[in-house]
Amino acid sequence: MLGCIANQPVVILVDGRSTHNFVQALLVYHLGLDAQPTPPLKVLIGNGNEIECHKLYSGATIQIQGHAFTTDFHVLPICGIDVVLDVHWLKSLGPILTDYNTLTMKFVHHGKIIELRGDTTRDLEAVSPMQLRRLV
């Protein structure tokens, strides 16, 4: 899904298994966003490693397809995507109708029915064994 933080286009992953919202550390640095020190938070990432988060970007407004949402983001050195929205963000939306065939989600926000659409323009390619070895 595509969105914007501080008028900068960002790639968003909505992850119902994530317990916190995250924003890419390089994005925070390049945009000069005001992230504050926070007690360390250990985060288990997809490859099974653990990394620590030491900063929080509070009260951030993220624009997603013309709709504004305010939330907090833990700052992490993640790659591939700019923002991860977590289960708590999803819960804040109330009931959601998700259609995985069309990559859409519908919910009521501030009294209006909102429909967000996933990015269907990117072609997915299989990873070769050599590419997988390099990633690992």
User: On the 0-100 scale, what is the average pLDDT?
Assistant: 89
General form: globular
CATH architecture: Beta Barrel
Amount of helix: 10-25%
Order of helices and strands: EEEHEEEEHEEEH
Share in β-strands: over 45%
Main sheet attributes: strand count, strand direction, barrel closure: 6 strands, mixed, barrel
E-strand count: 10
Q: Could you name the CATH class?
A: Mainly Beta
Radius of gyration, taken over Cα atoms and rounded to an integer in Å:
16 Å
- Helix count, DSSP H or I runs of 4 or more residues: 3
How many individual domains? Answer: 1
According to CATH, the fold-level topology is: Cathepsin D, subunit A, domain 1
Low-confidence stretches: none
Oligomeric state of this protein = single chain
Going across the biggest sheet, name each strand in turn: 1-2-7-3-6-5
In whole angstroms, the N-to-C terminal distance is 26 Å
